[in-house]
Amino acid sequence: MPLIFPPLAVAFDDYRARHPEERETIVRFADFLASHAAVFERSHAVGHFTGSAWLVSADGGRVLLTHHRKLGRWLQLGGHADGDADLAQVALREAEEESGLRDLVVEPAIFDLDAHRIPARGSEPEHWHYDVRHVVRATGSEAFAVSEESLALAWKPVREIAADPQADASLRRMAGKWLARYA
């Protein structure tokens, strides 16, 4: 019998209606959601859900990125669900923890989906992150604090990310989605 997590299943249906071109990705995420009770736990060895934040400035022109300590790349803020099936709240929590920013507001609708393989590291085997991304907006001070998870943080113009062939492909995709939203 498949497992059902209604709020996330409904969110996937909403995302499918807005992004029919991503049908294969959505089916993959929905199938993974129904595959096992532990999909929100990092102990689920094959993979698990994570929540990430497309953390935009109040004016919407910039996004806060982390130079990820473990991966050595500029990426969006985010992390493990650790049992929490409300991935919008996971994205908000991770944005606050990793940036030190307060007065953040999360949009409940899914902004982007990305499944990516995490290489083996130490005693942790290779596994998949099923990353559900939400828009998080800074509404107060934009003065951040670098956490231990980052080598650096920086506000980057969304238009530059969209045009940068060296940027992570999923960052470019999110930048394109963000710019299309305001076209």
Looking at this protein, list some descriptive labels.
alpha+beta; Nucleoside Triphosphate Pyrophosphohydrolase; 5 helices; 7 strands
Total domains, how many?
1
Which CATH class applies here? Alpha Beta
Computed over alpha carbons, the radius of gyration is 16 Å
User: CATH topology, what is it called?
Assistant: Nucleoside Triphosphate Pyrophosphohydrolase
Residue runs with pLDDT of under 50 for 5 or more positions: none
| CATH architecture assignment | Alpha-Beta Complex
Q: What structural class is derived from the secondary structure elements?
A: alpha+beta
Mean pLDDT: 93
Number of strands: 7
For the record, give the distance between the C-alpha atoms at the N and C termini, rounded to a whole number: 44 Å
**Beta strand %:** 25-35%
**Biggest β-sheet: count, sense, barrel?**
7 strands, mixed
Query: What's the CATH superfamily, by name?
Result: Nucleoside Triphosphate Pyrophosphohydrolase
Order of helices and strands: HHEEEHEEEEHH
Morphology call:
globular
Helix residue percentage: 25-40%
- Give me the number of helical elements: 5
How would you describe the overall organization of this protein?
Strands 1, 2, 3, 4, 5, 6 and 7 form a 7-stranded mixed sheet that branches. This protein has helices at 6-18, 23-33, 87-99, 158-163, 169-181; strands at 47-56, 62-68, 74-80, 104-106, 112-118, 127-138, 150-157. Helix 1 runs antiparallel to helix 2. The protein is globular, with a radius of gyration of 16 Å. It is 31% helix and 30% strand. The chain has a single domain, classed as Nucleoside Triphosphate Pyrophosphohydrolase.
